[in-house]
Write a structure and sequence with these properties.
The chain has 216 residues and is an alpha/beta fold. It contains ten helices and eight strands. Helix content is 51%, strand content 15%. Strand 6, helix 4 and strand 7 form a beta-alpha-beta unit.
Length: 216
């Protein structure tokens, strides 16, 4: 079985070591480097084969988005998953635009982190629901029109429910339809966006309109 090779970049030694022990206990994950600064991380990327960088946003005098820019400029084409105590909506949006494959909070369970790593390794996007909500709130507060003129009224209602972090059942109650109807509408939304997860759907919706041919 091919193992997913991970590089940890976090300026807190205790968290870094604890995360290392946690991830090494997973049969398909392998930590190939542990770094406390962006500079160390960039040097390790030159010396080791890394599939995913697990990157803290707050690196003391530096921040994770600077690392992402430098890593891409140096030719690193692998995945980057932000593992953070917190980022605001603008910081999260910038990280994703720079090439991060996801954002997960440090308050997440070990199982959730392992799941996020595997999904990102398979090419999916992982965005913590709290981060999704922050970005959605910022977009809506700024008057951004999400997916203009390309969705039905029902699709826009369901998408708004996803923005609010509601379950399918809660969305159905809110807009007065069955849970099965919500599931069907979500399938159409996923098809139009080319998305596989709610996080991907919201990210694509916030970045630009979806066309009726199903392409973002």
């Amino acid at each position: 079985m091919d193992r997913i090779r991970l590089l940890l970049v976090d300026d807190h030694p205790l968290f870094r070591e604890g995360l290392n022990r946690l991830l090494d206990s997973e049969p398909d994950l392998e930590v190939v480097g542990r770094c406390g600064t962006a500079a160390e991380g960039l040097q390790t990327l030159k010396a080791a084969e890394v599939d995913i960088v697990l990157l803290d946003f707050d690196l003391g005098a530096e921040h994770g988005n600077q690392f992402i820019s430098s890593a891409r400029e140096s030719g690193y084409a692998g995945k980057i998953l932000m593992v953070t105590a917190g980022m605001n909506a603008m910081q999260s949006s910038t990280a994703l635009k720079l090439g991060a494959s996801g954002i997960i909070l440090k308050t997440s369970s070990p199982g959730t982190l392992a799941k996020a790593i595997r999904l990102v390794a398979n090419g999916e996007i992982w965005i913590d629901q709290k981060v999704v909500q922050q970005m959605a709130d910022r977009a809506l507060a700024g008057g951004q029109q999400t997916l203009p003129r390309t969705l039905t009224e029902r699709e826009n209602q369901v998408l708004q429910g996803v923005f609010e972090g509601l379950t399918n059942k809660e969305i159905g109650v809110k807009i007065g339809v069955s849970e099965d109807s919500v599931k069907t509408t979500l399938k159409y939304l996923f098809h139009k966006a080319g998305a596989k997860t709610r996080g991907q759907l919201v990210w694509m919706a916030l970045q630009g309109p979806l066309r009726k041919d199903g392409k973002p």
